[in-house]
Request: fold
Amino acid sequence: TFTFLFSAGKELSPCTSAAATTPQYENQGQCHLIHYLRLSHHLIVLNYLICTFDKLKSVSSEDIKITDAVFDGVEVRVFEPPAKGDESLKRSVVYIHGGGWALASARTSLYNNLCRIMAESLNAVVVSVEYRLVPEVCFPEQYHDALRATKHFLQPDVLAEYSVDPSRIAISGDSAGGNLAAAVCQQVSCTESSVLHYSSPAQRGWQVLCAAPSQGDVPPLKTEW
Reply:
């Protein structure tokens, strides 16, 4: 399931409720135990092999400008399409890659090409988040990285720098990245400056279908994007 957030363009303010600022996670103690016993450290070798042979540099083309940046201490890769016609502001997607919180990278060919295609086909600025992985950190640091990068990007001056329309911003992800995208949406949407939507991955780029199969009897809602 993909998760989308549409910001109304207001500056984000901190959440006031304790539940929103300090979310509770089930089995967090087990995560720390596994981490400190180094039971997941074999993933370092596996991910090294994946990224060594599959990472791509940020090479721009005539169609898409690709740059690496740092948003509030979190590495991101930004994909920018050229301006079209009289359009001054573009829509945008913050994308969070999958990999079980332990594998893959925003710079692997799979996600690099996916975000490039997304930026070109949607004419959208795509921000792909390079959050830290297990076992370098343990959960919920992956969530914190994704949240920090997203909040940084949603600042008015940053949106202006990338010529992004504040009212047409989405957060999306696959697998573990979909989980992180949903969590980030829930945290950011605790302010009045944003509206939360859930969508099916089968949607078209300019529509939002606010009911995934896992949401039971929740009626679908279609809106222009």
